[in-house]
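Dear support,

I submitted the protein below through the web form. The confirmation email said the job was done, but the results page showed an empty box. After a refresh the structure appeared. I'm attaching both so you can tell me whether what I see now is the final result or a partial one.
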Amino acid sequence: MAIGKTLNILTLFMSETTELSTNYVCKSLDMSKPTASRILNTLTHHGFLFRNPRNKKYSLGRRFISLGLNASTSLNYS
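What the results page shows now:
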């Protein structure tokens, strides 16, 4: 299921690692390189991930950060 695989990739960003390589995603999730690349490219295209052109690693993108900020302001901490 593509949505489940996408969520599994995004969950990897919850670790201390701020940048992920395609190979790291493949090894961590036992995922084929074409599948991982397709999902990472789609998330990048839509602004949810950013691909560093120098090291070719992925980090959270602006749209994901905006979602997080919106979620944090809607939480009731009282």
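Response: this is the final, complete result; the empty box was a page-load delay. The mean pLDDT is 90.
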